[in-house]
Design brief:
Length: 131
């Protein structure tokens, strides 16, 4: 893990070079690509940050936290310019650290959106996210 600095609590402040893209699962009614201004999910007021996953964490996050949903919308985000407020941390009993953004998300950083569809074995990629 490439950290810019590690605080005494084990929180890692990320450098842009340490992540390719980030992924944020959002409900369709919270996200509109035509909306103006920065994005803040409803949970931001309560939690103070936006949850993200790395590519390799995305399907596990979807299956763990959205098992009651049939289809999900995912925002693929370029972390460039977010590094001052982007933290990799392990909270709420998580087994691994996840990226959290402690500010609103500028819409210019959302490079694409795609769906995850639930199949018999849980969520799987509808489109290729390997790029």
């Amino acid at each position: 893990m490439n950290c810019l600095k590690i605080l005494k609590w084990g929180v890692c402040f990320l450098g842009v070079d340490s992540l390719q893209h980030l992924y944020h699962i959002v409900s369709a009614n919270e996200w509109s690509s035509e909306s103006q201004g920065d994005y803040l999910p409803k949970a931001f007021e309560r939690e103070g940050f936006i949850h993200f996953s790395k590519k390799e964490q995305l399907l596990d996050s979807a299956n763990r936290h959205f098992s009651n949903e049939e289809s999900l919308l995912v925002l693929e985000v370029n972390p460039q310019g977010l590094e001052d407020d982007l933290v990799l941390e392990q909270i709420h009993g998580a087994q691994e650290a996840f990226p959290h953004l402690y500010r609103s998300l500028p819409r210019k950083n959302v490079i694409r959106q795609f769906s995850l569809q639930k199949g018999p074995l849980g969520f799987a990629f509808k489109t290729d996210v390997s790029s």
